């Protein structure tokens, strides 16, 4: 069974643009805590928020957010 996880490069883009989490949060209209949670992968942003974040960095959505697939084998596949 595979599990899809939305990953991001927000921290990298913030560094390139010399932005703090607080500054980014003000630009997209959310709290710094929200940016922190999204950046750490603890919360999946809405499509609108994700697009706003990409727009701030002036890059395509897919450059900031990407789907990572973790492959997990269930017990039967492992033989146990």
What report would you give on this structure?
The chain has 80 residues and is of the alpha+beta class. The protein has a single domain (2-69), classed as lambda repressor-like DNA-binding domains (434 Repressor (Amino-terminal Domain)), CATH 1.10.260. Helix content is 52%, strand content 18%. The protein is globular and about 35 Å long.
Structural topology:
Blueprint: E1 2-8, H1 10-16, H2 21-28, H3 32-39, H4 47-57, H5 61-64, E2 65-71, H6 75-78
Antiparallel strand pairs: 1-2
Helix pairs in contact: 2-3
Number of domains: 1
By DSSP, the count of extended strands is 2
Estimated helix fraction? 40-55%
CATH topology: 434 Repressor (Amino-terminal Domain)
In CATH, the homologous superfamily goes by the name lambda repressor-like DNA-binding domains
Structural class: alpha+beta
Query: What does the main sheet amount to?
Result: 2 strands, antiparallel
Weakly predicted, low-confidence segments: 72-80
Question: What is the CA-CA span between the terminal residues?
Answer: 15 Å
| Average pLDDT taken over every residue | 89
Strand content: 15-25%
Arrangement of strands in the largest sheet: 1-2
Q: Counting H and I runs of at least 4 residues, what is the number of helices?
A: 6
CATH C-level category: Mainly Alpha
Q: CATH architecture, please?
A: Orthogonal Bundle
**Shape estimate:** globular
């Amino acid at each position: 069974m595979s599990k899809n996880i939305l990953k991001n490069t927000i921290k990298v883009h913030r560094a390139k643009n010399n932005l703090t989490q607080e500054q980014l949060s003000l630009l997209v209209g959310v709290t710094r805590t929200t940016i922190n949670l999204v950046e750490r992968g603890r919360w999946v942003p809405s499509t609108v928020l994700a697009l706003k974040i990409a727009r701030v960095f002036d890059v395509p959505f897919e450059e900031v957010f990407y789907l990572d697939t973790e492959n997990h084998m269930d017990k039967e596949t492992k033989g146990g």
